[in-house]
Amino acid sequence: MAIALRLSRGGAKKRPYYRIVAADSRKPRDGRYLEQIGTYNPLLAKDDEKRVQLNEDRARYWLGVGAQPSDRVARFLDAAGIRERAARNNPNKAEPGDKAKERAEERAAKLAEAEEAAKAAEQEAAGAEAATEEAAAEEAPAPGATEEKAEG
């Protein structure tokens, strides 16, 4: 007989309350079970000590005779320090592929080139403005000279 440590749902509609049970894996979720080893109330705050109550001795016994915990029960056992739970997430899964990385590098290079070109254009424009101002200052007559011509 394959034994599973799993949750059995109770409670009213939209007010769940779970028993942590050792049950034959072929039985229905809320069906007959061998032993209740704890409770789980998801409506309580996460830091509340009554949210998960677990009989550690009985959990160790059932694990010792070969019971397999469900994912949620495995989390509870890990939090209680009864059984180490292996990490299930693949940290490299969200990393982009090689081609996407190449495209991102190309975009970054194009942006850098565009920024450099814009800076160079600004510097050239600033240099040209300064040159035109200097040229305009040289071509303009002295302020006193314009008054004399206007009077004469």
User: Helix/strand-derived class?
Assistant: alpha+beta
Query: Strands of the largest sheet, in order across it?
Result: 4-3-2-1-5
Q: Please state roughly what percent of the residues sit in beta strands, choosing from under 5%, 5-15%, 15-25%, 25-35%, 35-45% or over 45%.
A: 15-25%
What is the mean pLDDT?
A: 87
The beta-strand count equals: 5
* SSE string: EEEEHEHHH
Per CATH, the superfamily of the largest domain is: Ribosomal protein S16
Cα end-to-end separation? 122 Å
Q: CATH topology of the largest domain, anyone? A: S16 Ribosomal Protein, Chain: A
Per CATH, the architecture of the largest domain is 2-Layer Sandwich
Major sheet details: 5 strands, mixed
Overall geometric form: rod-shaped
Q: Helix amount, in percent?
A: 40-55%
Which SSEs are present, and which pair or pack?
Layout: E1 3-12, E2 15-24, E3 35-40, E4 52-54, H1 56-64, E5 68-69, H2 71-80, H3 98-139, H4 143-151
Family: Belongs to the bacterial ribosomal protein bS16 family.
InterPro entries: Ribosomal_bS16, Ribosomal_bS16_CS, Ribosomal_bS16_dom_sf
Keywords: Ribonucleoprotein, Ribosomal protein
